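Trying the structure run again after the queue cleared.
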Amino acid sequence: MPTQRSPGPSLTFEYRLAQEAINLRLQAKGMPAGVRRTELLRKARQIDAAGEVNKWLTSPGLQPPS
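Done. Tokens:
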């Protein structure tokens, strides 16, 4: 049985995180102040933090614990 591939070129994890954060902020921008808008903005900030952690973990200067 042949394996299925996703269409188009593969996007990096960092790029996908950044795009998701942008999409969430755009959704929140069109909403009135409230719980849902706050949740969307919180999720965008969490995704930004995840991107920073990923960047740190994959950096070439990261040393393993000794």
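The radius of gyration is 17 Å. Worth checking whether this holds up in the mutant runs.
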